[in-house]
Automatic annotation (TrEMBL):
Domain of life: Bacteria
Spans traversing the lipid bilayer: none
Pfam families for the chain: ETF (PF01012)
Organism: Inquilinus limosus
Protein name per UniProt: Electron transfer flavoprotein subunit beta
Requisite cofactors: AMP
Length: 249
């Protein structure tokens, strides 16, 4: 079984994101970039499936600029077998990425695509669902446990009410949640080995997809600063404040 793992290059989760002065977007100049944390979890899960003898090949794919090669190399260093970069400098939106991934799925014929539940830059939480819809495949989102069976996947999902376990027929789309596993660090020898692994580059046009954005960003703004909280001495004081200051009751 082949597993396709889309990995997105995003601003590192430790970086304090700053909005550009003209409000046109986020300042990306000289900012550390890394693999989307949920995608590290996807790569880890796919590699574990291979180590358990359930998968035969793990293919990491990224859509983005030439530098997204680094993200793919990280996946290869963790243990993925080969990589595909769909190179484009266009601003990418989830539907465009899903269309590109659909074209790759048609070509590569994986049995499973494991995506992150969301990319921490846009927090869209859309690509996996859109891909499942475009392919007409079943989907199991927010996976916190995955058991691969013959022709199906048993997936425990993190839902509002707690946990839910569903069985999806393969081929299927899975999106990963935080508790699924703890991704490994790539060792130095594996980082060296990853440099020699196959990494092909294609363009969206090669796949017959126009990735042009369909949505327009009007303005990007910092969230308002949080004001300090106050301690109240009694329930009466709390109720009075809710009535007269917050005016919510
Ligand atoms: P999103 O829908 O943008 O929150 O992204 C959800 C997941 O889709 C990510 O965790 C990735 O697995 C995948 N994804 C989104 N954008 C890209 C991209 N440009 N390249 C590769 N994978 C992506």
């Amino acid at each position: 079984m082949k597993i396709l793992v889309p990995v997105k290059r995003v601003i590192d989760f430790n970086v304090k994101v700053r909005v550009k002065a003209d409000g046109s977007g986020v300042d990306m100049a000289n900012v550390k970039m890394s693999m989307n944390p949920f995608d590290e979890i996807s790569v880890e899960e796919a590699i574990r499936a291979k180590e358990a003898g359930k998968a035969t090949e793990v293919v990491a794919v990224s859509v983005g600029p030439a530098q997204a090669q680094e993200t793919i190399r990280t996946a290869l260093a963790m243990g993925a077998d080969r990589g595909i970069l769909v190179q484009t400098d266009v601003e990418l939106q989830p539907l465009a990425v899903a269309k590109i991934l659909k074209a790759l799925v048609d070509k590569e014929q994986p049995q499973l695509v494991i995506l992150g539940k969301q990319a921490i830059d846009d927090d869209a939480n859309q690509t996996g669902q859109a891909l499942a819809a475009l392919l007409g495949w079943g989907q199991a989102t927010f996976a916190s446990k995955l058991v691969l069976e013959d022709g199906a996947a048993l997936v425990t999902r993190e839902v509002d009410g707690g946990l839910e376990t569903i069985r999806v027929k393969l081929p299927a789309i899975i999106t990963t949640d935080l508790r699924l596993n703890e991704p490994r660090y790539a060792s130095l020898p594996n980082i060296m080995k990853a440099k020699k692994k196959q990494l092909d580059t294609v363009s969206p046009a090669d796949l017959g997809v126009d990735p042009a954005p369909r949505l327009k960003t009007l303005k990007v703004a910092e969230p308002p600063k949080r004001k300090g909280g106050v301690k109240v001495a009694s329930v009466q004081e709390l109720v009075a404040k809710l009535k007269t200051e917050a005016r919510v009751i």
